[in-house]
Amino acid sequence: MKKIYLAAAGILAMTAAASAADFPMKAAMAPAPVYSWTGFYIGGNVGGGSSTVAFGDPCFYCSSGNVTKGFVTGGAQIGYNYQFGNGLVGLEADVNGNNINNKFFMGGDDTNALNAGLKSDLSGTIRARGGLVLNNALIYVTGGAAWADVQQSGVEVCNSLTGFCRGGVATFGAPTGITANGNSTTVWGAVIGAGVEYALGPNWTVGGEFLHTMYQHTSANIVNASGGNSCAGNNNVSATNCVITSQLTTDVARIRFNYKFN
What we know:
The chain is mainly beta. It folds into two domains: 1-30; 38-260, Beta Barrel (Porin). It has one helix at 2-29, and strands at residues 39-56, 65-84, 87-106, 112-134, 137-158, 175-179, 185-199, 204-215, 218-221, 243-260. The protein has an eight-stranded antiparallel beta barrel with strand order 1-2-3-4-5-7-8-10. A hairpin with a 2-residue loop joins β2 (65-84) and β3. The two termini are 61 Å apart.
């Protein structure tokens, strides 16, 4: 009987040792937890790009052109992602501050010329996102609506050294009284883009994004010092078309940081 107990004890000891040796291997072979992109997030962005403004003229100055200039931008975004397998859809809105300030010397080869400009300090987008999830990496495309607060300006100056300028102005560079200034207004447009994002942990992500945006035209009336229509009597321009137009287009590359809520 004693020999039977000893044999049984030996078998139990060997089984326990084998199980203990097998445990680390099973633990090492256990699948790593899969990151989930589903949820609300909020974050910030910073970057830069180029702004192009197309200035148009109905031939009061018979001059038009495109001006491209670099600018910096930064702001905040908020959104929601929904992951299904390796696919993802989402919705995002952002607001950004910019230092866009493009200028064009319209009619620079004439006696009278207009210093035209367009500024934009604030913009934003409302975009859908769709992408491919590779565990903690995301590749996506995006598109939707965009808006920007813009202000168009224009001041005519004497562009002659001989003194034969509009309104009897004889000083080179002096205002003649003709302006084409517009009030600050919100313009809408469309935006498309693409980006990549990487999860640093359960809550934080970092990524890069490129966006191309085109906004609608704006216009400002060409008026004299008393506020009257400056195109009256001009055979080239009808009184109803006495405006300077501008259209803003931007290309932006930016870095994003997001905090995802569990």
